[in-house]
Amino acid sequence: MDSKTIIRIQTVTKRFGPAVAVRNVSLDLAEGEFFCLLGPSGCGKSTLMRMIAGFEEPDEGRIELDGADLVGTPPERRPLNMMFQSYALFPHMTVSGNIAYGLRRGGLDKAEQAARLAEMIRIARLDGFETRYPAQLSGGQRQRVALARALARRPRVLLLDEPLGALDRSLRESTQAELKELQARLGTTFVMVTHDQDEAMSLADRIGIMQAGSLIQAGSPREVYERPASRFVAGFIGAANLIEGTIIRREPVFARIALADGTEIEARAETGEPGDAVAVMVRPEHLSLAAGDVPGPNRLAATVTATAFLGDGVSIRARLASGQDIRVLAHGGAPEPLRGEAITLAFAADAARVVT
Amino acid sequence: MSAARLSPLNVTALALGLAFLYGPILLVVVFSFNASRLATVWAGFSTGAYRGLLDNAALMSALWTSLRIALVSACVATVLGTLAALALVRGGRFLGRGMFTGLLYVPLVLPEVVTGLSLLLLFVALDLGRGTVTVAIAHVTLAMSFVTLVVQARLIGFDRSLEEAARDLGASPLQAFFGVTLPIIAPAVGAGFLLAFTLSLDDLVLASFASGPGSTTLPMYVFGQARRGVTPEINAVSSLLIAAVALTLVTVTLLMKRRAGASLAR
Amino acid sequence: MSGVVHPPGEGGKRRAPSKRRWGSRLVLLAPALWLALFVLVPLLIVVRMSVSESVRARPPYRPQLPASLDPELWREALGELTLDNYRDLAASSLYGEALLTSLGLAFVATAIILVSGYGIALAVARAPQNWRMILLAAVVLPFWTSFLVRVYAWIGILKSDGWLNQAFLALGLISAPLAILNTNAAVVIGLVYAYLPFMILPLHASLEKQDPALLEAAADLGASPLRRFWTVTVPLSLPGIVAGSLLCFIPMVGEFVVPELLGGTETLMLGRVLWSEFFSNANWPLASAIAVVLLAILILPIVALRESERRRQEAAS
Asked: What residues form the membrane-spanning segments (chain B) (predicted)?
């Protein structure tokens, strides 16, 4: 990446008693990017973020900001700020009091503090609410106070812990757009923790996927969607069919895989040797219904178990001969099969990937 | 949903319960204005009993002793109890935690006569002259456990990320504690102080064991008189105590309500 | 710590957490010292005093524990320890009677408080939302007024020319004044009055949490009001019942003020006996032995109470 590295996480491990919360994670964050740490709850993403913020210290490894080691620096002396999942708004302070809290310790003179406060109130569209207390605000307003408070000190990096988790669905979508727009305008590096893959996909420049304390893959939304590094990533990002099989032949780009029932298919492969048990990932939208009697490569026989009309297409659940369930997203216009009907599914070898 | 349906049985229970709880107290207040020396036979309205109080030197000295002890012991108990609550909620696991919580629990459940006796034996063993100081020590010991209970409950409900947010925004640990934590747990600390003050002002048994000559507290004085029977003076003193407590509680409630209205109320 | 890039000169790395730990140690220190000196040590002194000779009514009490660690001196001193005080307690029917009276009156009073407190707590919990806090405050408010005054008030009510007898006579319910004051009945009344709020608070806490939909579900499934009460309301409030009963029972057993002011000379309760052994007879070792007995009786209920509170705290957090 061309842009400058702002945060460098090197072989960081964090244990809580016998449990390893974060395991040997290394990651570089570029200045100005919007990075999402994505993973199921308990995967260590929040712990990793809290180590960047300074609320936890790594047991091993180091965390650098602009080339200087942060480990051992207390949170109040780190030039980054955090927006908390619960917002953590001080209930005994007004909106202004909350936003100005960090400014009062920022080495700014009174006039600068007032100007910055006014700017934040404006950015967060909180005009007229300055003297309200958090309990008197709506969920969306509280969220904006928390954001403004964390941004007021102009942090080098803004850490966001599930910032939209407490909002209801409709508000969340509009807030996502605002957040993305704000990040682009300010140019501040955002690091966000979320368990919602749709949110990560729509906001992030890059996504880091964590599982059981380890960072499995980091890359752009397109990369992690199209080239998942593991079955876990394939299943976690978007819907995926994982068809089990064994590699029988390996070519530079493609591999030939035999399924349990003898069917042979081809898929893109970056790893794996003949004899390896692997899974072939095919996204539901890349499967199509083929006329049963037309032979061709990458054909799977299946029986329809359920269908649902979605407006712009039809979702089909079918069962392969091996007993494995498979999802198909057929686009509008395709004939809708009946339950119990035997169908043949087809996919392009280019759209299928071998994952281990 | 929670549309309340108070049955006639519920209403009766409430009415009888409140009458039972307040009746005796009201009788004491009413008969403190009795003109007759026979305290339980009404003989017309009089404020004579109250006027007599100011001239009662023994009573006034007991009152003064009690107030001083209550103030000092409540202050110390509030600090120690709040520290203990912080250690319990924030300290995580530490050596002797079980022992610590156990000892905190002891004054809450031990019969007062046992606590009193044990403290007295300690004072004797230490050769500590008995007086207001020893009574105050006894009251701190009793009250700090109550303060811990009250503050602990509030601290457990306290969202730690508030403190972290303060740290994140540039506050040192101490600044975060005094600027964020303390103001938010202040109602509990205040309630703990009031509880400690009331406990001290009310205690008879510990004070009887721990006090020496010249350190008679108000409850000790009242107890001595009450043993001899009901008098308008004791009714009057009791009424004043009731009034003082009621006034304090009303003031505190109003103050907290005003703050709560402005800030808390999720 | 295997194969990790660990640049030298990172001494500061572990300083922050350990400094934090020192802060919490300091917070702990003051209350811990206070508790050790004014709770733990006094209890040990009581136990030690209870096995001292009661011949001499004034200190120093034998045996004196040696100041040095010389095992010979210690063996000698320990050999002088005596169980005489406990033997005295067991030998005299007075103390056994006091023990039974204490437990009996505390039990009866707890039972009465449980029944009446349940009615009140239930009514408060079922009251409209905006009334609930006010009613609860009204029920608890007397708890803040002086315990002594509240007990004292009953002297005026119960004595032979007291308000109760005046009222009963005026109503023609009785022809001669009832002798209630200075009886066990008066003690029970006083105990009930003084400890009622201790029961209502935990009961209310567990009753208020109950979802009214549970009762509706029970009704929907065909349960009568009484059946609903016994099969839904009561079992769910069991933690409150246990906590409230223990909160009342434990201090009542050692109660001094109530039997002293309202009881007769025959109302012997352990707290009162301890008091008189100490203040009137100046028999400190015997008083200490009574204290140890009181502790031994109460240790089970105390542990049970602590357990129930721990469970409630865990459920809350």
From this structure: 12-33, 69-91, 103-126, 132-155, 176-199, 236-256
Q: Is B140:B162 a contact under the CB 8 Å cutoff?
A: no
Residues of chain B found within 8 Å of residue C193, distances taken between Cβ atoms: 20-21, 24
State which H helix or E strand residue A315 sits in.
strand A313-320
| Edge-to-edge strands, sheet with A342-346 | A288-290, A342-346, A299-309, A313-320, A325-331
* DSSP calls for C6-42: --TT-GGGGHHHHHHHHHHHHHHHHHHHHHIIIIIHH
CB contact under 8 A, C156 and B109: no
Specify the amino acid at residue A335. P
Q: Predicted ipTM?
A: 0.87
- Cβ-defined contact of C10 to A57 (cutoff 8 Å): no
pLDDT digits (tens, 9 = 90+) for C92-142: 888 888 889 999 999 999 999 999 999 999 999 888 888 888 888 888 888
Q: Is A352 helix (H, G, I), strand (E, B) or coil?
A: strand
Please report residues of A whose CB lies closer than 8 A to that of B172. 74, 76
Residue C129 lies in a domain: yes
Is the pLDDT higher at B124 or at C20?
A: B124
Domain for residue C306, yes or no? no
**C residues 144-203 lying closer than 8 A (beta carbon) to B:** 144-150, 152-157, 159, 161-163, 166, 193, 196
Q: Which CATH fold topology does A5-231 show?
A: Rossmann fold (3.40.50)
Tokens, residue C11 = 């001494």
Residue B3 in any domain: the answer is no
Helix (H, G, I), strand (E, B), or coil: what is residue A347?
coil
* Parent domain of B100: 57-229
Cβ(A10)–Cβ(A63) below 8 Å: yes
* Nearest Cα residue in chain B from A131: B262
Q: Give the CATH superfamily of A239-355.
A: Nucleic acid-binding proteins (2.40.50.140)
Say how many domains are in chain B.
1
Which CATH number do you get for residue C240? 1.10.3720.10
The domain that holds B68 is classified in CATH as 1.10.3720.10
Query: Which contacts of C57-66 are long-range, i.e. CB under 8 A and separated by 24 or more positions?
Result: C57/C281, C57/C282, C57/C283, C57/C284, C58/C282, C59/B124, C59/C284, C61/C284, C61/C285
Interface contact B263-A86, CB threshold 8 A: no
* B159: closest CA of chain A, how far (Å): 7
Alpha-carbon span B25 to A138, nearest angstrom:
46
Over its C-alpha atoms, chain B yields an Rg (Å, rounded) of: 22
- Tens of pLDDT, residue by residue over B141-194, are 999 999 998 899 888 888 889 999 999 999 988 899 999 999 999 988 998 998
The residue that leads in pLDDT, A216 or A293, is: A216
Please say if the pLDDT value at position A31 is more than 80: yes
Tell me the nearest-neighbour CA distance from A60 into chain C, angstroms: 7
- Does some domain include residue B205? yes
